[in-house]
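Consider the following input, taken from an annotated entry for Glutamine--tRNA ligase (Phyllostomus discolor).
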Amino acid sequence: MATVDSLSLFTGLGLSEHKARETLKNTALSAQLRDAAIQAQQTLGSTIDKATGTLLYGLASRLRDPRRLSFLVSYIANKKIHTESQLSAALEYVKSHPLDPIDTVDFEQECGVGITVTPEQIEEAVEVAINRHRPQLLLLVPTFLGEARAVLKWADGKMIKHEVDMQVLHLLGPKTEADLEKKPKVAKARLEEAARRTTKDVVENGEVAGQTLSLMEQLRGEALKFHKPGENYKTPGYVTTPHTMDLLKQHMEITGGQVRTRFPPEPNGILHIGHAKAINFNFGYAKANNGICFLRFDDTNPEKEEAKFFTAICDMVAWLGYTPYKVTYASDYFDQLYAWAIELIRRGQAYVCHQRGEELKGHNPPPSPWRDRPIEESLLLFEAMRKGKFSEGEATLRMKLVMEDGKMDPVAYRVKYTPHHRTGDTWCIYPTYDYTHCLCDSIEHITHSLCTKEFQARRSSYFWLCNALDVYCPVQWEYGRLNLHYAVVSKRKILQLVAAGAVRDWDDPRLFTLTALRRRGFPPEAINNFCARVGVTVAQTTMEPHLLEACVREVLNDTAPRAMAVLEPLQVTITNFPAAKSLDIQVPNFPADETKGFHEVPFGSIVFIERTDFKEEPEPGYKRLARGQPVGLRHTGYVIELQRVVKGASGRVESLEVTCRRADAGEKPKAFIHWVSQPLTCEIRLYERLFHHKNPEDPAEVPGGFLSDLNLASLQVVEAALVDCSVALAKPFDKFQFERLGYFSVDPDSHQGQLVFNRTVTLKEDPGKV
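Applying the prediction step yields:
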């Protein structure tokens, strides 16, 4: 059999020559398909029809347990399994029944073996579905297909599709020219707007604190295939052992079938917008399924961990509206992890190695000469590592496996003499992520270990290690990271920005760390809504910042009370002010909903307006204050009209003199402008993007490196802005809409008598930023 021409064998199954050659490049697939084809030929002869060949290829490419190949091929070759739906059911059955022997009666019942569906049954099922939905016929053809398939599970899908087409044709007649006319493409912007509006409608009906889109509605593609608790073995790629079912039974007894997730940050930096997606996903998925989520600190590298990061991470999780079921630490389990490492050595699955770190770098590091050292020798050496008899880098404990990316024998323990923030000098050896991650998940009986895509290369080691120790094995699921254009989020690069003086610290409002976004004034609800809109996909997602800002505006529009502020003041004296002293003006906190209350501001004979709201020589279309062109003052009920312009020695306009009248005593002005009277002097910080280019870390886009791409105008400080006195008692992080200017938040730099405001976002999106 070894001499069989595989290429001819595969083309004989109906594969194109190109497809056959591509298949041959996959050693595992080609071996399994060759075995399947040869076995089928023993029943069918040398000629195999294309339909059977397609099923054999589907079997070989999707079967994860080679032990079941012969069993399933016999059903295909004997035409007992002859449709795609039957094959899918068969693959699902063997995956969910990993132990021998297979109950053939139950198997055949679950896979529709022996069931024949007549054309008359198909016609009747389609007719019932169409009659049920006749009024919405044009929109629901896919529904007919689905309902007919649900009734006739084992029917041929092509036959159902043909019958639907025939019955719809009978009802509606043939397609007209209008039906066949190619529809014009909708502009991308309109599509995005429609999607935004649709998402907004959904978002407004949710219930998680701030995360208003159902978690299940966020899921896309592969993420919808999550297993049920206790059904880990149904996950593609999950490795079963003779102990798997017993371990899952014990797991279910401990958890009661509860969904358990965890958010496992390293306490060596500040969380950023990408972590917000991870927090929402882990906590949200647990909440959506009435489960629990742990906050577990992966504190296995004492060299990089600081107490301030632990505190900041806890604060950010709480700020986003989530409460962990329990806060745990990898260091909680150091004793158990050490005991398991000893057991791994005893089982011949780990060894002490003396290759240096530099020897292990690169794509093809040399194999360890110590891989086959005696078990007893490794046990003694590992104990010596534990007792501090080796210097850092002189010895490691390595596991005997090859990972997806080709990395061989990953390190499980290394020597570090840095004191640990929780265990002090108790340990001088620390476990690695590859060793710790899956075992901590096992200890906490996590059901869904949700990781970003870069950890996919560690999935095999995850399953391998749990199975090597015969402990409960959770399932690792990967999803795509969330990134933003015009941003850097890596710890190392943010530290470079701080060192270069480009930003003040981790919480500089121009960054996209969560502490920076909070300081800038982004509400946690808006961040959660943004994560909900992005959804959870397997593919990496890179979004435009203006989409996040749109979520911020939606929340602040409903929650930020209005106030008035002037950034570039121009003094205006009302020469015929109608009262001997200032008037108290009632201003609605939310003009669109006056039931939310009012605040009071003084209105006196001297007011300040924006310098840009006056022009001596206005251009055509200018509607604000000019000679012969009065304007209204918002909320006062008064209109002012220019009488005199006062200039300084340089010719610059220093003040204006105007008269006023009641707004209802004459023609309505073309515009109403904001103003302040008897105001507070405040500092206002205006922020723009930190980088000029979308991808500042991309050498092709920014050859000089991200530090060369800094926008030197990303921060403008207005030191003597004037704000109405209604904000006098504002506290850090209080938020306001300054009318006609944007949304602003009180900065923690504020102190008694000196408020500092950060502009969170402008009132409208800047078209130049899209």
